[in-house]
Amino acid sequence: MHPAKSVIFFTTATGAGYGLLISLFAYAVLGDLPADDRFFMFSFSGAFGLVIAGLLASTFHLGHPERAWRALSQWRTSWLSREGVFALLTFLPAAGFAASWWFLGQKALETTVLGAVTTVFSLATIWCTGMIYASLKAIPAWNNPWTVPGYLSLSAATGVPLFLVLGVAFDADIGRLPYFTAIGFVAFAFVMKGLYWVFKKYDDVTATAESATGLKMGKVTLLEAPHDSANYLMKEMGFKIARKHASALRKWAMFLGFLLPIGFLVMAVTSPPQDRFMPTAFAFAFVFTGTVIERWLFFAEAKHVVTLYYGAEKV
Amino acid sequence: MTALPKDTKKKLGLVIDLDICVGCHACAVNCKEWNTGGISAPLTDTDPYGADPDGVWFNRVHTFEVIGEDNEGGRTVHFPKSCLHCDDAPCVTVCPTGASYKREEDGIVLVSPDTCIGCKLCSWACPYGAREYDETEGIMKKCTMCVDRIYNENLPEEDRVPACVSTCPTGARHFGDLNDPKSDVSKLVAARDGYALMPEQGCKPVNRYLPPRPRKPEGEAAKAPRMLKYTDETKDGAGLLARLVDKVLSG
Fold first, then answer.
1. Which band of pLDDT confidence, cut at 50, 70 and 90, is reported for residue B244?
2. Helix crossing, A79-104 with A5-30: angle to 10°?
3. What is the C-alpha to C-alpha distance for residues A170 and A178, in angstroms, rounded to an integer?
4. Which of A224, A298, B71, B247 is buried most, with the most CB atoms less than 10 Å from its CB?
5. pTM of the full structure
């Protein structure tokens, strides 16, 4: 599948933004967050900024962005529509969560309740994003149970380190619990993506040129394509370049996105509080970079069954 | 509304005979010709006379070679493909705007050009590649089963069939109601073991394909009728003198 830049940015940015919102809720309840007003400002504007920028980017690949509001109407059948509805609905409790935090404090009951609702809606939005892809039977690589956990776990694996960077920036001694949580989520995402790559059906044959054409007399090969130049379907669904470098890119995504950040987080948590900012910032930068590579691969590696009509032997 | 109708009164569809199709692309060309002036008009092209032409087509002819297990007797199969107007059309249910819909009265799957946002998700959901993105207009387009021909009272009755069917010079394309077991197309499907493409995708396509007939046996029976009576005068049946003259003159 063609990896559209706007969709890669959308899914990674909103993932980190929602992850940050959820972390804010979790640590507001579990621990003591920096009381500094600037922490509040940076955290919430960061979370809202990432989500809003992502949502806007997602409209860039539309043929008619001015009609994007229509996408909210078909939530009964369409996961894309559900994603849009949940993304917009999340702004209500999230705005309430921020307001309650500002006026009533991070430990107020109202803040906790609104934060919990924000968390549920954020998770629902990411779930819908994953389901858009997981529900497509024509793309066997996505049509499996590991796609949605991949989206959810990477949201946490980018959101929690981002939260840590902001936390450490305004209160060096934020405690060790957030670090262990961040390490846990990055490791969890590592396992989830590993399972996706192990169990996903990239290498399994789900359909062949014979099954797609229904020709049972023998081995089917494409003799002449319908056109002598690439058409829309071949450009959109027939993206091949990533599969050539897939195993190398996967190793880079694993190393940059998971192992290196875990290393930096361990380095941070074992350092004295005043030295924790830099390794934490590096951890976030690498986990986000790795997630972008992973997301690019997610699209670029996936094969669509329509390619069977254009010369692919199996999908 | 992108919920699919529970059932459609008719299932208008195409039956394509892979035994007869000669791969002349006339169906694809006439489809483009009609539809670039029909309800989905225009079917835009980009760089049509340049090095990398591209454009919107609803119907395409793929040509496959099939080689049997004995590695002998390769066959060329021309394979026209357009929208199969599925009963469980995934392109319709994924549509976030309701622009895609399946008509309850005849089962035809259409896109409303005024509400499509051009998100392309329908083209990802369709296993058959029936969805086309019109780069110039920013919306998705697809085969309409020539809905503007088949009900068009301004056309003579015999022309009220899809453009691809009306133009096929070999009669490889048939149009009718596949929900009616008594229709000509249903009888044809029953007689020739017509099949659906990729049933494992669960889309329940309406269109059917008729498989190529088995190859005729080799040997005398494989020859064209006129060849059966043909005798090679230079070898068989020529008299002694004739063969002598032939040898002298050939030498």
1. confident
2. 40
3. 14
4. A298
5. 0.90
